[in-house]
Structure formats: C-alpha cells, structure tokens
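Here comes my example:
=====
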Amino acid sequence: MTDALQAAYIVKVTHAGTDLQESLTVFYAIIADNAEAGVQLVKRAVKDDAVVEATDARLSQVTAHALGLAPGQARAL
C-alpha cells in the first residue's frame, strides 16, 4: 500500500522499431514519490533506446491496490 506521499503514476514507454510503423507504446503503472521518480524507475527496467515519459494520469489507491502494485514496482497495463 502507498504512504501519504506516494501516488500511482502512469508512465508511457515507446520503443521505436526500424520505422515509425513498427513502434510500440506501452503504459506502466508505478507507485512512486513523484512522476519523475516513476519515470526513472521505469527507465531502469526497459531498453536504453526506449522513450520514457510521465503522463498526466494517475490511478486511485483503490485501483493501485486492486492491481497489486507495490512501491517501486512497475506493472504494464
């Protein structure tokens, strides 16, 4: 469960293919202290050439709990 200072952020990860038609976008949910911390945690888990960026979306604590999220762990959505 999150503490009062943490939230469940949605992070967007784009993997470029050999051309734009082969790019792949995946969204991850992650519990972190702030959006940038969430981005950094996800960056450590994906390929170096992936573009990782925060979104304006967040999950409620109820949804984060239902997904079984734990602080510092990313889950693909």
